[in-house]
Amino acid sequence: MPYLKNLAARYSEFYTSSHKIKSVVMKVQKQSNDTPIEQSFIATCAMPQKTDYRPLKVALLDINERLENRLRYFFSDRCQGDYVVAVDPQSADICLIDLDGLRGKSYWAKHAERQHNCPAILLSLHKTEVENAKWLQKPLQADLLHSELEKIREKLHLQQRQVAPVSLPKPSAETELALSGHHQELRNKIKSLQALLKKEKIRRTQLSAYRQDGQADNPPLLSEPAYAATKQISVGEQETKNTAPFIGSTPDVDLDNETQLAWVQYDPKRFLIGRVQKAVKLAETSGRPVSISSSHGSITIVPMTGEVLVEIDGQRLQSLASQPVNDDEYLLSVQDSVCDIPGQTHRRPVEAFVWELTLWTSLGRIPVNVSPNNTVVFKHWPNLTRLQIFPQATRIAALWAKQAHTLASTAQALEIPQRYVFSFFSAAHAIGLATTEESINEKIATEENPIKSNGNKTLFQKILRQLSLH
Amino acid sequence: MDNYKILFAGPVSAGKTTAITSVCTTPPLTTEAQATDISRDSKTTTTVAMDYGTMQLPGIKTLHLYGTPGETRFDFMWDILSKGSTGLVLLIDNTHPDPFSELHFFLRAFKKFTKKSRIAIGITKTDICISPRINDYQAQLRNVLPNIPVFSVDARNQIDVALLVEALVVSLDLELAA
Ligand SMILES: Nc1nc2c(ncn2[C@@H]2O[C@H](COP(=O)(O)OP(=O)(O)O)[C@@H](O)[C@H]2O)c(=O)[nH]1
Ligand SMILES: [Mg+2]
User: Fold this and answer.
1) A320-358 pLDDT, tens per residue?
2) Do A221 and B158 touch (CB under 8 A)?
3) What is the reported pLDDT for A342?
4) Cβ-proximal residues to A349 (8 Å cutoff; 6+ apart), any chain
5) pTM of the model
6) Residue A73: how many CB atoms within 10 A of its CB?
7) B contact test, residue of A18, A78, A383, A458 with most B CBs within 10 A
8) Is some CB atom of chain A closer than 8 A to the CB atom of B27?
9) Is residue A332 classed exposed, middle or buried when 0-12, 13-18 and 19+ CB atoms within 10 A define those classes?
10) Res A100: pLDDT
11) If you measure from the C-alpha of residue B31 to the centroid of ligand 2, how many angstroms do you get, rounded to a whole number?
């Protein structure tokens, strides 16, 4: 199928360009004392990419949860981030409407009436004649959708994709103060990276992995190969936007070195994910819905269905996930019933939600509450078709399923940057599928006094037990 | 290895023919014929000999995908097609009244692959019937097979099937490299 052909084309493109990249990498290495390159590398590592290029926003109207997840993946993977899900349908560039949905037809009627300048793609199982819009049959064919989106892009004349150079802001005393929360964290990260780069050692080992000639003979499969890091170093453009939301961009560290270890650790309790995990536990013990309310909207764990109702849209949630939380920012409360307002809330299985939120939080780091140097205990493969996947996920899972490895030895064995391993570990850990040896013993020690729940274990309780493993 | 022969097995109507059609690069070769009485309520045609298609993986690999007939009256084909196969994709229909017995039946029938754990399992039609869940299947396998990929798969969905095949192939790669 053309989809796979295209993928193949994408990879062969990579393999040819990888030679160019390799030479750039070598140059970077040679000029290791050259400050501008060092600086831009650091900026690329730690700061989001600023580009003139703007992905097109696609409003998903009456698209079910499952299809939405797939589309998100399709946009970021197949379309390489050229399209994103629109937060506000009013500001969308393109509308995608499922006519078979409950409100699909009325959305389309309204859209046809008002938003003439926003092209629409309509979906339905059965052939439907429509005017002024493109119709596609379900199940959706990736190729058809892609070519329709590309046609619209052409029409909208939004093809300029020039990357503006990223420069590192020079902090003054005031700006230093103004850099609160997230920015301060980034700043700290940059500082640590600068210290790290001075030593040069780590980057060299990292880079040398990509210079090995064997690389092209052993290409990864459908997941993206371990080239994100190399490309970041060279140009820091497109590739980061695919993987950065899940993998971050932290360089490899020596996990035996306490200072370096701290750079790649995060404390889930200090982030939204910590609140969510607390709410999940509370929902389990109380058997009732638990809401996390905040000024951004609410998140409700519903134990009866094993779902989460989320009022906060995906992009907002993604940025909230990586920001340290204040004590009073998110309040937990046990509910008597669930208020599910169609159109305002978003339903997701608990597992998929926790997995993704963890990826957004972890950004290539590991939780503080695991022993980083012990062997990984991998319970079983995650159900990857229903979770947000990212490059290298299948290779890491396959390795852990067959061989005992530590986090560091996993990255070495697969010849990939550690951050891929750390992200995968964090997500699998959050849904109870991975931990490290010592934390199992700790768990047994703390489980002496297990919470007694009424004998009749529901499916959800089983899931929750897994989710609260650590 | 440059070429892998991957076998798709599982009960009638699990989605083998559909799965191969979803991912293969060239139009697949199928051998559909009138189904016997047993499978007629669910669909009118069934694979009688085999399905065949190739899937091009980025880089150097071509995967040759073979679909077995689901009906046991054609089980002689299972052995024939197993010869020279590197790995097995087992599809189990979640709407079956007893999917676990189907699972164990097919694991026994394809011992050659299970012995070396060259297998990945796709649970189909989870959109129609949500239970058993993937974790329940993993629990069934815990004492039978080492850790293998078990995913929810809609055979009509390219990404689902491709991801399952990828999981199998990366596992095979590791094993063959060892
Ligand atoms: N709803 C649904 N239908 C599916 C799924 N997987 C396969 N099917 C359908 O199941 C039917 C039987 O599939 P087929 O490939 O002929 O099964 P085979 O006997 O294993 O070759 C086809 O109509 C498929 O479209 C799924 O996950 N969900
Ligand atoms: Mg068939």
Assistant:
1) 999 999 888 899 999 887 766 656 778 899 999 999 999
2) no
3) 59
4) A306, A307, A308, A386
5) 0.63
6) 16
7) A383
8) no
9) middle
10) 85
11) 8
